[in-house]
Amino acid sequence: xxxxxxxxxxxxxxxxxxxxxxxxxxxxxxxxxxxxxxxxxxxxxxxxxxxxxxxxxxxxxxxxxxxxxxxxxxxxxxxxxxxxxxxxxxxxxxxxxxxxxxxxxxxxxxxxxxxxxxxxxxxxxxxxxxxxxxxxxxxxxxxxxxxxxxxxxxxxxxxxxxxxxxxxxxxxxxxxxxxxxxxxxxxxxxxxxxxxxxxxxxxxxxxxxxxxxxxxxxxxxxxxxxxxxxxxxxxxxxxxxxxxxxxxxxxxxxxxxxxxxxxxxxxxxxxxxxxxxxxxxxxxxxxxxxxxxxxxxxxxxxxxxxxxxxxxxxxxxxxxxxxxxxxxxxxxxxxxxxxxxxxxxxxxxxxxxxxxxxxxxxxxxxxxxxxxxxxxxxxxxxxxxxxxxxxxxxxxxxxxxxxxxxxxxxxxxxxxxxxxxxxxxxxxxxxxxxxxxxxxxxxxxxxxxxxxxxxxxxxxxxxxxxxxxxxxxxxxxxxxxxxxxxxxxxxxxxxxxxxxxxxxxxxxxxxxxxxxxxxxxxxxxxxxxxxxxxxxxxxxxxxxxxxxxxxxxxxxxxxxxxxxxxxx
Length: 568
Description:
Blueprint (H helix, E strand, L loop, with lengths): L20 H8 L3 E5 L2 E4 L1 H20 L3 E2 L5 E3 H7 L1 H4 L6 E3 L5 E4 L4 H11 L8 E10 L14 E11 L2 H21 L4 E5 L8 E9 L5 E6 L5 E3 L20 E4 L6 H8 L7 E8 L2 E8 L6 H8 L4 E3 L2 H8 L15 E5 L8 E4 L5 E6 L9 E3 L17 E16 L9 E3 L5 E3 L1 E8 H11 L1 E2 L2 E2 L10 E5 L5 H16 L4 E4 L5 H11 L3 E5 L7 E6 L5 E5 L3 H12 L1
Parallel strand pairs: 3-7, 15-17, 17-20, 27-28, 27-29
Antiparallel strand pairs: 1-2, 4-6, 5-6, 7-8, 8-24, 9-10, 10-21, 11-12, 11-21, 13-19, 14-15, 14-16, 18-19, 21-24, 22-23, 25-26, 29-30, 30-31
C-alpha cells in the first residue's frame, strides 16, 4: 500500500479525553476515531489489526472443534423473558421497540438466541455435543465508558456456546476451550493469566477469566509467586495458616467504648490489635438476616458469602434491620446472646481467644470473648478476601497481587439457560433430558486495545509480528530525489513479490514527519531509502529494539528474512 493513498489521519497532540496509553496512541496513530462515548470507528489500520486477531481466533476455534455461524444483533424480548434476564440483566441491556410496539434488545450476549436455535433443531443425544461460535458486534449501555476500546458501549466479541448430554462432555470441551484461549492470547503476544472468576450476570459456575497483566486493569488478580495459580481476588481461596490460640480463656467482661465504633477506633481505644477484634456485620440474604463474623484485620468477601449461602442476593442490612433483629445500630453489633439470627463465621474466627466484639448495645463492647462459650456459630467457611502473603491454594509459594484487563472468559453454564428455555433432547432410553451448556467469550476489540497497551514506548505503538497492520515500512526519505524515488519504487515491487505486506511511504513530506509517523504506527521493520540510494545501500531499523544498520540492496532479502525469523 502506498502511504499517499492510505487513510491514516495522525494526530500530533494527545487527545484531552484519552486517559490511557492504548487509547491515546490508537487515536494519534489513526487506527480509530470516536463517534460517541464508548462508540468507535475502526479506520483502515485498526481494521487490519482486528482482522488479524479475528483470523487467529477463527483458526484456534476451528481447531478446537467449534463451528462458525452468525446470529442477529436484534433480539426478541420474549427470549429474554424466557430466561428471566429481561429485567435482571440491568440497564446495560439496550432495549427498543419496533413499529409494531414489540420489545427488542440489542445483543449484549447471545445465550438466549443460541439456546432457542438449538432447542428447536436438536432433538436427540446423537447430535450432541455441539460447539458453535460467532464474531459479532455487541451492545452494552455502560454507565461509564472509558479507556477507549477497553470499556465501550459497542464492541466486537467472539462468543461460543457448547451443548452437551453429559457433564463429562462439558468438562472436556471446557478444558479444550481454555487451551484454545491460551493459544489465542499467546499468539497475540500478550502477558496473561487464566484466573478463577465469578460468573456475574451470565450465570453458571466453574469459570475462568483470561487477564492481561496491566497497571490500568480494573480487576485485581491474586496469583502465586511459584506456580501458575491465579484467581480473581473475589474468588481466590484462603488457605488457613493460623492455629488455634493457646491463650487460656478469661472472664467475659462488658466495657464502655464511648464513641468508638469502627475497628480502627476500637483498636486504639482498647489498645488491642485489629486481629484480636471480631468484626460483626449483619447482611440480608434473600430477605433473611445473617450475622457474618470475620477477624478485624480481614474484609468480608460478599461473593464467597453469597456462594456459601447459595443466595440469589446479598445486601448489607439497613440500620432499621439491625435494630429489628439485634436491637442495636451498626457499630455495636456482636454475636454474644444472638439467638434468632443465623451466625456464619470465617474459618479464622473460631481460632481466636479472648477477643473483642460489639455488645449489641451502643457505646459498649465485650472483651475476652470466646466462641462456643460466649456465642454460637452455625456455619464456618472461607469468607474473607485473600491478602498478599497468604499461602497459595496449590501449596506452591505465596499470594501476590496484580491488576488485570479481562480479554476472555469461559463458563460452565450447566442448565441456567437450557432449563427455563426447555432445551431438551431424547436420551438413549427415549426420555427427555435438559442439555448442559458452556459459554466462551473473547473481547476482540478489547484484545486489540490490550495489545496496544502492552506494546508501546514514548514514540508510539510497537506491534507484534502476528498482528501488525503491515509487516515492512518502506520509506523514501526524500521522495523528490530521483535516485531515492526510483530505488524505493523498485524495492516496493520486490517486497510485494516476496510476500511482504508492505506500507510504502511515498509522500512528499519531510523526513522528520515520515520517521515520526513510522514510530507512531509501530510497524516491526523499517527500510529507509536515503542519501546512499545511488550506492545501492539502504538502512534497516527494528522498531522494538531500535537497532539499525546499513544494508546493500543485494543483501536486503536475506537480512529481512533473518530479522523476520527473530521476531516470529
